[in-house]
Structure formats: structure tokens, C-alpha cells
């Protein structure tokens, strides 16, 4: 096994880990939107955890749009954050994979 092959495998592994982490963040944001739309019990442990994680990963976009409807506000703000995380993940993974 050559050094180039080992390095390539390491870079590909790193890119895969970064993609998984990014997609898990997107999943948390989408789950927060779904739980909000379905009126999940906010006192539930799972709903609380998802809410706290979504607040951590919202990139400061939780008050970007301020429509009067709470559910629409969540969909717009956290949906935008999910799209931004998806784009960031895609760009970072592409850059990492281009490392020679």
C-alpha cells in the first residue's frame, strides 16, 4: 500500500464523517420543524432535546422571518438554517475531497 493510497483513504474517510455530521444537523433541524407542525408535547424529553439541539444549530436564523403564525416562523427560520447547513456541508465535503 502506498502513501498516496493511504492518504486518499484518510481524506475520503474524513469527507464521509463530515457529510454524516452535517446531515445529522440538517436532520435535527427538520425534526424540529416536523415536531412543531405536529404539535408535539413540548414537555416530552425527545421534543425538548430536539428543540435544544435545533436552537444550538440554527446559525442565528431563529428570528430572520417574523410572520405572526408561530408554525410558519419555525418552518421559515429553521428551514433556512437546514438549507444553509446542507450547502455548507456540501461545499466543505467537496473541498476536502479535492485535497490531493
Automatic annotation (TrEMBL):
Membrane-spanning segments: 17-38, 74-96
Protein name per Swiss-Prot or TrEMBL: YGGT family protein
Keyword vocabulary terms for this entry: Membrane, Transmembrane, Transmembrane helix
Domain of life: Bacteria
Amino acid at each position: 500500500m502506498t502513501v498516496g493510497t493511504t492518504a486518499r483513504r484518510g481524506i475520503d474517510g474524513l469527507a464521509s464523517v463530515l457529510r454524516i455530521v452535517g446531515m445529522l444537523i440538517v436532520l435535527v433541524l427538520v425534526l424540529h420543524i416536523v415536531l412543531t407542525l405536529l404539535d408535539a408535547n413540548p414537555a416530552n424529553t425527545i421534543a425538548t432535546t430536539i428543540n435544544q439541539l435545533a436552537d444550538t444549530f440554527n446559525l442565528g436564523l431563529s428570528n430572520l422571518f417574523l410572520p405572526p403564525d408561530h408554525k410558519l416562523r419555525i418552518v421559515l427560520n429553521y428551514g433556512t438554517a437546514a438549507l444553509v447547513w446542507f450547502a455548507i456541508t456540501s461545499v466543505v465535503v467537496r473541498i476536502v475531497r479535492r485535497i490531493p
